[in-house]
Input
Amino acid sequence: MIAPELAAKIRRIDISTRKAVREAVAGRWHSAFKGRGMEFEEVRPYVPGDEVRTIDWNVSARTGEPHVKVFREERELSIVLAVDLSGSLQYGTRGRLKRELAAELAAILAFSAVSNNDKVGLLLFTDRVEKWVPPRRGRGHVLRLIRELLAFEPVGRGTNLGGAIDELARALHRPSVLFVVSDFLDRGWEQPIARTGLRHDVIPVVVEDCAERQLPKAGIVAFTDPETGATRLVDTSSRAVRRHFESAAAAASEARDRALSRTQMEAVRVDTDCADLVEPIVACLRRREERRGR
Output
């Protein structure tokens, strides 16, 4: 049984996401991702303009006329959503938590995949792998993934992004497209992601909240670390304290961006106050489509 509130959230995401995918994403999804390879389809007579390299010399010799081999891209793809459920995702100041933002983004990606008849799977992680749902097709499967994203209660509160990526790489037996949805507030993930990117197509999706970059002036406030539970009183009325916070937040963000840059993976960045979640995904697909065309 699903609680009415959860059922309402699933239905809202289902309706809004499917409409967004149909109108904006579906047309670019197919061309943005390569298939696993080229599959032989047929042999046909040569026509001017065909690549000489595709001539089937055996058939040409047998028939006395030039024939070419025709190939088509093998389109069966497995899309895997690796979603961070650590304590820091239970934060948000713009009407939604980062976890809710991650769920909505994952839903858009999942519906985009099944609309193209691709399989989609889900890995939920904190400082451990919490749940693994192997890739499958179908709208019913996507609705199950959305339910897991919204309702699953993780055991861990910390983050081990690198460990989760390594576990996922071991579980996948064929090249896949991996969307890693996280705030990337962790260390040690750069090498595992880069290593996994040698075999799989890895796309980092960074979820953020603007309050993580700037401390409000609100007097003495008790701050609790969502992953360790440690609490500390902070005088937010102090200009020096606010400047120190902003400086530390900027340094952490720059370090994360440098690490992503070293992996040579183009990240999608989305904030909790983003009104249109489809636009960043469409922009990513457009850039990939353009690069593939070149």
